[in-house]
Design goal:
293 residues; alpha/beta; three-stranded mixed β-sheet; 31% helix
Amino acid sequence: MIRHTNHSQPQSGSAFRLSGGPATWLSLLMLTCVTGTAYTVENFPTATGASVVRPLVFVFNGESNSGGKAPNSEATPAELAPRSCVQIMNLTSGRFQFEDLQIGVNNLRDHVRLSGHPSHAWELELANLVAEGKFPGYKQVYLIKTGQGGSTIAQWAEGSAYWNKFIQRIDAAPAQLPPNPQWIIWYSLGINDTGGGTPKATWKPAVIDHLQRMKKKLPGAIILMTQFQSMGYTELSQAIAEIVASEPDVYAIDSTGDTLADKNHWGYQGYKTLTRKMVNVTNQALNKKPAPR
């Protein structure tokens, strides 16, 4: 039996708690971006033969393009409204709880050089695409933003401040998630290393080490790496292609034609077209993954 503990009629934007019933309820607990209704779950019991909806958990990582400089001023009113279809981790409350995404309110927190900046990255169009049903069977996904503006690969070494903050955010997630999350890392890094003169021979193995550490921390993760054709970084894009060729479950995203806000950052429309590419590749990668045991 499914019931909600708030006996009043639920209104748009309200929240109520469900209890009782098998794990197959999880498909019923997914939210739409239309009503804004938020649900919580008291327990996730399993039953023989029950199929649990595996949560999709996106992790954005890298330099400033993982935080985003696409102007919020170009977004529509619907895109600026609370979006329950993407549950974003609150990075500044001290509790790291998930909450409805709201562009301009909670999408850009504790990100070096960009905290509180009136801009966004992939999260805006990700919410649009979840609402459009681009992830079959999912009306809600989770998001943890872990990037830092201006960062180079050396600053993500194991034991570094940025890596430790990454671990802190990831460690806060499992207790709040349904079982057996599928981790999806969207990664964008290399512009600052290129500008700072990091040799390719240094950059490539350091990036591979970082990717492998993230995969170890997030078992079964798939990783999508943006290339930088739209900014003109040909050698950097080639280095990323070489990394992808050597690393399982890592995919390159060609950014040709994705328009810019400035010479090093994608803009509002550019993030839209780039995100659509990334969602397509994400779905293709997920379709190749074996079913969880």
